[in-house]
Amino acid sequence: MSDGINGSTDSTAVRGVAAGKGLGASATDIGASTISLSRTQASDRPWRRLGWLFAQRAALAIVFLLLWTMAASHVPAFVLPGPEKVLQALVNLAQSATFTHDVLTTLTRIVIGFALATVVGTPLGLALGSSRVLATFFDPLLAVMNTVSSAIWAVFAIIWFGISNATTIFVVFMTAMPLILTNVWQGSQNVDKLHVDLARSFRMSRAQILRKIYLPTILPYFFSGARLAFGFGWRVSLVAETLGSSDGIGYRLRQAADLVQTDQVFAWTLLLVVLMLIFEGGLLKPLERRLFRWKPL
Questions:
Q1: Is residue 156 one of the residues assigned to a domain?
Q2: pTM check: above 0.85
Q3: Does residue 156 contact residue 168 with C-beta atoms inside 8 Å?
Q4: Cα–Cα distance, 242 to 239 (Å, whole number)
Q5: What phi-psi label fits residue 133: left (phi over 0), alpha (psi between -120 and 50 degrees) or beta?
Q6: Rounded average pLDDT per 10-residue block, the chain, 297 residues
Q7: What is the DSSP string of 184-239?
Q8: Any domain includes 77
Q9: CA atoms of 49 and 41, how far apart (whole Å)
Q10: Residues of the domain holding 262
C-alpha cells in the first residue's frame, strides 16, 4: 500500500517537474520572442522617423510650389516667374559655356575663405579661452568685427584687392572667422579645470591635455560655429561677387538683375540653395555625427 502511494507521489512529482520545465521553457520562449520583437521595432524606428520626415518635407515642398504657381499666375513673369520658367532657366544656364566655371569659382572662394577662417579662428579662440589677459584685450575688437556688415568688408576689399578672387575670399574670411573664434573661445571656457589639474598631476604633456581634455569639449562648439560660419560664407560671397568680381554666381546674379531676367535670378538662387543643402546634409552633418557618435541622443 505504501509502495503504491510512494509510486503515485513520485509520478506526480515527476509530472510536476516536467510541467514546471515546460512552463519555464514557454516563459523563456516568450521572453526571447519579446526581446526579438523589441529589437526589430527599435531597428525600424530610425527608418520610420526618416520616412515621416521625408513625408513632411515633401508635403511642405508641394504646398510651397502650389502657392508659388498661384501667385505667379496673377503677376507678370518679370515680377515673379513660375516654377516651370525657373526650371527651364536653370536648364539653360546649366547648358551655357560659363556655368561650370562660375559655380566652381564661387565654391573655391567660399572653401578657401572658410578654411582660412578655421585655421586662424581656432587657435585664437583657444588662446583667448586659456588667457584672461588676452580675452580682456581682444574682447572689444571681436565685438566690433561681429557688428561690421559684410557689405562694408566688401567695399574695403575692393579698395585693397580690386576686382579679384581675393575680394570674395577676404569677405568670407572676415565674416566667418569671428564666429568660429567666438564659439571655440566659449568652448575652451567650459573645459573642467579640475580635469586639467588632475592631468597635470599625472604629468601629461600639453599636447595630451589638449587632445584628451580640451578637444572633446571644444569640438561641439567648433562645429556649431563652423556650420553657422559656412552658411554666412555662402551669403556674403554673393555680396562680394556682386560688388567686386567679374565671374561667379554673384556676378551672374547681378547681370541677370540688371537685364531684368528674373527667371535667371531665381534659377541661380535655387542652385545656391541646393548647393548649400548638399554641403550641409551631405558633408557637415554626417561628419558631425561620426565625430560625436559617442554622445547620447
A1: yes
A2: no
A3: no
A4: 5
A5: alpha
A6: 48 48 50 52 65 83 90 88 92 93 94 94 87 84 84 91 92 93 87 80 81 82 87 88 88 92 93 86 76 60
A7: HHHHHHTS-HHHHHHHHHTT--HHHHIIIIIHHHHHHHHHHHHHHHHHHHHHHHHH
A8: no
A9: 12
A10: 103-292
